[in-house]
Amino acid sequence: MFTALDQKSKLLAAYRIGKRNHQTTAAMIADLERRMVRLPVSEGEDRPQLSTDGWASYIPTIGRSFGQSVKHGILIKQYRNPESGRYAPPALTGTERIAVQNITDVTTICTSHVERCNGTIRQWCKRFTRLTYAFSKKLENLAAAVAIHVAAYNFVKIHGSLKMTPAMAAGVVDKLWSMDDLYNAVMEQAERKRKSARIDRLIAKLREQN
């Protein structure tokens, strides 16, 4: 599961389920690009900053989707005996920060917030809990469980440090949603998609007749 977290509002702005490969990375970064509002390149330091780990696909995919409209930095953590973390994380021995583009202060490169969010995902979405029987045997079931978790995390669950939901902190909504509100929003969106699909089919049929 690839995730993109806003540092201030803690909003899970984008995510993608798939193999850890270039195709999944590109799809997630492209989705994130569609969801972000950015100032012109001339605004310099006001550009948003993306901090990632050292996964090689991030550099070309971010460059292709965002160009110079964002800052990008990489944080690589070094561990002692990294393969020993089966039941506990291995000991951290150091970090390396790399400014990929437009970053003047490498100390601002930070992945701690999204790593903490990964812990929340594993805590609340049991299909990511290792060494248990809770894993998904079908990709569709995993995707559905993750979608419910992300929606509830953003709109329903009050964040401990914010005292509001991430969606409220980001200005996406102006009130706390219940699970009923979330369900109704999903159903309304699904109905809009069905109507749009029916209209598209009707237009295609009329074009064939003409």
Q: Keyphrases for this structure?
A:
two-stranded antiparallel sheet; alpha+beta; 210 residues
What is the topology?
Layout: E1 2-5, E2 12-16, H1 22-35, E3 49-52, H2 58-66, E4 71-80, E5 91-101, H3 112-124, H4 139-155, H5 166-169, H6 179-209
Parallel strand pairs: 3-4
Antiparallel strand pairs: 1-2, 4-5
Helix pairs in contact: 1-2
Please give a structural write-up.
The protein is 42% helix and 16% strand. By secondary structure, it is of the alpha+beta class. Strand 1 and strand 2 (12-16) form a beta hairpin. Helix 1 (22-35) packs parallel to helix 2.
Distance between the termini: 47 Å
Mean pLDDT over the full residue set: 90
Which consecutive residue ranges, at least 5 long each, have pLDDT under 50? none
Broad structural category = alpha+beta
Q: What's the total number of strands?
A: 5
Give a quick account of the main beta sheet: strands, pairing sense, barrel closure. 3 strands, mixed
Overview in brief:
The protein has 210 residues and is an alpha+beta fold. Helix content is 42%, strand content 16%.
